[in-house]
């Protein structure tokens, strides 16, 4: 591709074609790197994906490069001036490099989040942890993304250098150039809109493929730009509010029914047991033997499997794929049904309550332990807002007299084994009853291990597996030490995850499987094992725990506490999804999806999901997340 003439239209067309082709090359890299996740069902869907890439690629080019297009179409002699060309090249190269880099980053990290990058990336980079230490690990672990990404970027820059606009000896504004300006802008506007209809939206990608395959059609650059200039939340009004209230009311009483009358009275008797909530980083059901009966299941959790035989084991489901989404859902009952995590969105200053909010009223001491850097992901701010008496992170662990240099992974924070021992020691100083919440860090990319365990726990199919096995051993030692404490017998232990880890088999890569997490409840005073097929999502924990403890405090939660038919809701790439137990066979799960104008599922389930979504946006946008 080369142009050295003075025809601005040929020059502009070649520049735009180069940008389009470079984006398609990045899209191919993305698809190849994540081929185990995206599984189009037919040749027809592949053809739809191809055409969708053309439509969204053209829209992205015309959206991101619109200032460049306008400047190059203006009938002015300045187009052949050096200063003007520098401005145009800057408006062409810099924003397009952002598009290419964003898609390259998604090629590596999409397998963990299942979400394309959006404008939240700018917030994430500011509070995600020690990026200076993480970047070298990412360069090694995801070499394919940056190596091939650099090749594409270099090819883009070299080819761009060969497209030059030759100078004119003289210039006169001609009428056909005004016609060219108008025609060029009309074509650009048509492509930018994605056709004659409404402005193209991310949900329109589902016209070319299944909703779960939207990222194969759309791209991160377009998603970032779109979310920068659109409001984070828009009301979803599917039905009259009274009908929505009758289908799902998030204001729940401890007796298990939505509050419709202020005279609702709870008949439960309080039983102030201690609560230890253990949230394991990236622990998917796929890694646990107790959730997998297949002989070839790659399980790394002998201790948790043995504990499960004396526990109630639910079909746990996450409400998101990022830690800040999962922690918020577990502690407050509020999922993230938007591109930006709830605690980072425009309405982040809404009044909210959580498990410690209620337990504090009943004399509990509440503490949140996190083995990572204080302030990472704003966990400390969230904990402060919902009333934890203590937040104990890396700084507090370092101040402990028993901390050692080998306890630190020098990336995220404290290895699980020493940190869990610290949790036991510090919890033993609490006055009962107490709530101890602990969030581990070791099973997070780049998946470090203490030196003494590197030959004991091996990688297998994925690096996370060695860390899961190490975590399981750390939990065994945690329980060995906890059993020696006087508070152990009067404590309810809940073991779950912030979100699932990378899926390693097809069963854990679909709408349901990629959000499966453990939900194991162990009571030393009632240790008869029970496996329950009912789906329990993260947002069920808050109201269920309040009910279990016998408190009559009403709560707002987008879950339930009287579970007879379980369901889970989450937000994918601009689609809402509900996974629910089939009423005739709880072992079977129904999938319900809302994606723009597309609706998948039974009419009853679609109506219920619409009610949940409508209630969510109504309450978030109107600051109604506290029970009356």
Give a brief rundown of this model.
The protein is of the alpha/beta class and 628 residues long. It has two domains: 8-228, no CATH class; 272-563, Alkaline Phosphatase, subunit A, CATH 3.40.720. It has helices at 8-33, 43-64, 66-73, 82-113, 121-127, 131-141, 143-162, 175-193, 214-217, 220-228, 241-247, 302-308, 323-332, 355-361, 379-385, 394-398, 416-427, 464-482, 541-548, 603-621, and strands spanning 251-252, 274-280, 312-317, 365-370, 390-392, 434-439, 491-497, 519-522, 530-537, 555-556, 567-571, 576-581, 589-595, 598-600.
List keywords for this structure.
single chain, 628 residues, alpha/beta, Alkaline Phosphatase, subunit A, eight-stranded mixed sheet, four-stranded antiparallel sheet, 41% helix
User: What is the tally of beta strands?
Assistant: 14
* Envelope shape: globular
CATH topology category name of the largest domain: Alkaline Phosphatase, subunit A
Q: Report the helical percentage.
A: 40-55%
